[in-house]
Amino acid sequence: MTNIKxxxxxxxxxxxMPDKPDLKYLFEPRSIAxxxxxxxxxxxxxKILGNIVSSKYPGxxxxxxxxxxxxxxxxxxxxxxxxxxxxxxVTIVIPAQYVFDAVKSCSNKGVKFLSIITSGFSEIGNSQxxxxxxxxxxxxxxxxxxxxxxxxxxxxxxxxxxxxxxxxKSGSVAILTQxxxxxxxxxxxxxxxxxGLSSIISIGNKSDIDESDxxxxxxxxxxxxxxxxxxxxxxxxxxxxxxxxxxxxKKPVIVIKSGRSKKGATAAASHTGSLAGDDNIFSxxxxxxGVIRAESIxxxxxxxxxxxxxxxxxxxxxxIITNGGGIGVLATxxxxxxxxxxxxxxxxxxxxxxxxxxxxxxxxxxxxxxxxAKFEDYQRSLNAAFNDDDIHSVICxxxxxxxxxxxxxxxxxxxxxxxxxxIKPIVLSFFGGAxxxxxxxxxxxxxxxxxxxxxxxxxCLGTLYKNYRNLQYRVDTIDQPASAETKSDTVLIENIINKxxxxxxxxxxxxxxxxxxxxxxxxxxxxGLAHNIEEAIRCAEEIKYPVVMKIVxxxxxxxxxxxxxxxxxxxxxxxxxxxxAIIHNCRRYNPYARIEGIEVSExxxxxxxxxxxxxxxxxxxPIVMFGLGGIYVEVMKDVAFRAFPFxxxxxxxxxxxxxxxxxxxxxxxxxRKDIDGIIDVIVKVGEILYEHKDISDIEVNPxxxxxxxxxxxxxxxxxILTRLNESQFGQAKTEEEK
Length: 738
Ligand SMILES: Nc1ncnc2c1ncn2[C@@H]1O[C@H](COP(=O)(O)OP(=O)(O)O)[C@@H](O)[C@H]1O
Ligand SMILES: [Mg+2]
Fold this sequence. Notes:
alpha/beta, Rossmann fold, 4 domains, seven-stranded mixed β-sheet, flat, binds adenosine-5'-diphosphate, binds magnesium ion
């Protein structure tokens, strides 16, 4: 019934809503109006007009101000109605209380996009008006960027419709930022670092246009080679994940997300009004999507610049060339941290470098030219590395030394890079005093990837390789669950859920949870439900000893906490004792607990206990968790998350990501555990949650895992339903009565 209703309302909505305008007109508007253009030089409304004009925007510019006149040589219109012709983009910079009227005035002008710079909306709790503005705009075929933003710069137009710095260099990095102030600072920073931008856009409160919308444009935009995002919170995570999965096999996405620390999360949440979410979940899901996460803005900027400027590598073999052993070892450690593969074919290296490396040097990677190395030694080794097909990337290091003319070296590299013949990816790290620092400061903005810190240099190369692997092997691209035949019996599962709803519970008894597991094809112990001692004995004898017994009560969710689980029962007498003990313990634990009965199940053989969970996350929708189970799971927090749906391969990545993974591979002569069995359950549990919108949480704990080929067994399944309000409970009943 309800389904039909929502479908009908969706159809009606689709009819009344005009088509969304093409995002092309936000990035390449043919005309721009500025509501709130100002005659005063210190006003934002003046600055934006100045930026539009000085960015050599070729389209039509319509400044609007009731006083009319002229600003910066541009004719000012008193109202939008005076403007003839259509307007693609309207930038609004008037105080919040006048914004809605201004938006209304745009509805007859064929306006496609509104860039609402003004703040004072949902970020300070004024969500109602923001919603009304967006609804009105959407109903009239307009989309809203912002509010609470600095605007948009797009190299394609070109146009700088921001109130940030005027001189933005055009190039191939696109920046999306949720924070306006930080975004403006980033423009300044990109200028200092000499990074070219294809666009920079602030999305602010994301009342309508969000990252996902902009990413859809940027993935198609040939001018954009690298996408960098600063985000504080994710609102429509399911769509975000889908789009990221499409982009990262094509171009790199680098993300900085604030709210990593608990304190940071609170600050971010109050800053934008959107929840920052759990950082581990965010981190893992970005990994799943092939997104590269930076810790700091500097890192994100360094990586974006390097990825935009460097040629892609042709293979994994990297070589370190150095004049100092110590710095070489540091770089080796950094390579391990950032997953850069050091070439180790000694024979080939001898052939390549025998003419280049001096007598006391080393031809083992790192290639050590010794402290006596002169520019010419570096030049010979670098040329040897550049010219050999077995070497795919170079890490060039140096400690300040009297013999070495670094300026010559940097100039040589600059020439090699600017040479029309594409050179291999290279990063440089030089360490020393004032002379070295001065040279680094001079050459870095000339687009030589030189850093004083080895880790910074190697992290850039590591990021290049991350992207290389994304492009080579693709990341998880699945965005639909597996085919119907592998799915569990949906109708039978629905029946159980309905029964629980009718019983006015929002969680399933463990035996009901186990029934669902069984329907999904997950192995579970044989189980029966007893209401008295005689039934318990009968169950135990049918199941065969040893058995376990567990309390079944709507008032006891954590059974062992209440003394409601007894294991290793080998005979009738033990069953009788256990029955009485469980009732006694649970009565003492909660005198008001309603006891439905006692579950008797087969005692499963011991194995490695794992935990598999799934729940509906506020940001990302269905997510799945895997970890090593048992009593320490809460303490160790050694778990991995993924957004569902995903492939078996991704489930395998998830399993191998946890720190205790070696335990599953088997340590000290133990056999490997049934990892395939675990993956099966991970995917099935994800599917159950995905398919049944009534379920909010599933936790299989423990899933006992046996040796490879011997399978896994779900011992306990806790399933929670989404909360219904009273009227919905009523509805469930009427459905049943029918
Ligand atoms: N059928 C069984 N076979 C083997 N061990 C079991 C069985 N049932 C429970 N256990 C053990 O007892 C622990 C607690 O039981 P469980 O059903 O998970 O209850 P709860 O999580 O509600 O306390 C499990 O983590 C597992 O180690
Ligand atoms: Mg349990």
